[in-house]
Design brief:
It holds the Pfam family DAHP_synth_1. It catalyses: D-erythrose 4-phosphate + phosphoenolpyruvate + H2O = 7-phospho-2-dehydro-3-deoxy-D-arabino-heptonate + phosphate. Keywords: Amino-acid biosynthesis, Aromatic amino acid biosynthesis, Transferase. There is one protein chain. This protein is an alpha/beta fold. The chain has a single domain, classed as TIM Barrel, CATH 3.20.20. The protein contains 10 helices and 10 strands. An 8-stranded parallel barrel has the order 1-2-3-4-5-8-9-10, surrounded by 8 helices. Strands 6-7 form a two-stranded antiparallel sheet. It is globular and about 75 Å long.
Length: 352
């Protein structure tokens, strides 16, 4: 007797528009293309030691859930970025996918209505729209790439990307990174180990063949050359920090064979801040102090920041406070602005 054995726990399979269809509707403009290209090259110059004086700062909301708040943040950040551009290169966090330890809101692409309906087709279009608008404001964008299909829809608008602590060990994400066109930061594992990120850097620099989709959404074999622009992101782990001088020295020694002049970025949030958003200021200042003391392997910092400080709890259809994170707690804008000016004032950060 024939019995059904396939898709026993699947209740719906719904096709998405292809990347080509979405990009035709929301095309890359010359203005955005120029900004992405120039920013990627500027980051490469920092990473490979051509630009040895500036620091890269990835700063912005833990995740974007409200386009209007994101645009207001981008406009404020643009003013600061322009004022400090000769000393620090500022790129805005525009994170649309959130890996969850168990369950929770998975980000704007997965659930753009914030109500559990998970209209992913709309989420992809909304993410691309936000990236276009922020690039058109003159702010380059950074994002974490989680689902390996998503880069086909938005990667042309991203100047720097992260592979997160939960996915750095994933072969799928290492292969994906090997074909991405922007510099990639691999976070250390959630338990704090450097080795998984270093293994990821090695894997991503090499060519790969893997299954993905093409511009028309057809399942395809993807062949890559390997990505030469990888680095490690120290975010602490297992309840411990890893941004001390000793930690930075160990990370520097661990990646010495990768041929990168400045391979270390410090995430000032997560375990490095003990999940206390205000401690990001202390962490950032300590890292810049090490840079002042000659530790030039440090390429930059990552900060979680929004218009309002802290975080709020998301529940489907619950009214939310404007400009406040619904994922990790963030620095306020006023604290962020002051910190960025302080970092740029460091005597070790000299104009290019």
């Amino acid at each position: 007797m024939f019995r059904p054995v396939d898709n026993q726990h699947v209740i719906e399979i719904k096709p998405l528009p292809s990347p080509r269809q979405v990009k035709t509707k929301l095309p890359l403009t010359e203005q955005a293309s120029s900004l992405v290209y120039e920013t990627r090259q500027a980051i490469r110059n920092i990473l490979h030691g051509i630009d040895r004086e500036r620091l890269l700062v990835i700063v912005g909301p833990c995740s974007i859930h409200d386009p209007d708040a994101a645009y207001e943040y981008a406009d404020r950040l643009k003013t600061v970025a322009d004022a400090l551009r000769e000393r620090v290169l500022i790129v805005m966090r525009t994170y649309f996918e959130k890996p969850r330890t168990t369950v929770g809101w998975k980000g704007l692409i997965n659930d753009p209505h914030l109500d559990g309906t998970c209209d992913i087709a709309l989420g992809i279009e909304l993410a691309r729209t936000i990236l276009l608008n922020i690039n058109h404001r003159g702010m380059p964008c950074a994002s974490e790439l989680l689902d390996p299909v998503v880069p086909q829809y938005i990667a042309d608008l991203v100047s720097w990307a992260a592979i997160g602590a939960r996915t750095t060990e994933s072969q799928t994400h290492r292969e994906m990174a090997s074909g991405l066109s922007m510099p990639i930061g691999f976070k250390n594992g959630t338990e704090g180990s450097f080795q998984v990120a270093i293994n990821a850097m090695v894997a991503a620099r090499t060519p790969h063949h893997f299954v993905g989709i093409n511009a028309d959404g057809a399942t395809s074999i993807i062949k890559t050359t390997g990505n030469p622009d990888r680095h490690i992101v120290l975010r602490g782990g297992g309840g411990r920090t890893n941004y001390s001088a000793e930690d930075i020295a160990r990370a520097e020694a661990a990646v010495a064979g990768e041929g990168l002049a400045r391979p270390i970025m410090v995430d000032c949030s997560h375990d490095n801040s003990g999940k206390n958003h205000q401690r990001q200021v202390e962490v950032a200042r300590e890292v810049v102090a090490q840079f002042e003391q000659g530790r030039r392997s440090i390429m930059g910092l990552m900060l979680e920041s929004h218009l309002q400080p802290g975080r709020q709890t998301w529940e489907p259809n619950k009214p939310l406070t404007y400009g406040m994170s619904i994922t990790d707690p963030c620095l306020s804008w006023s604290d962020t602005e002051a910190l960025l000016h302080d970092l740029a004032a460091s005597p070790a950060v000299r104009p290019v």
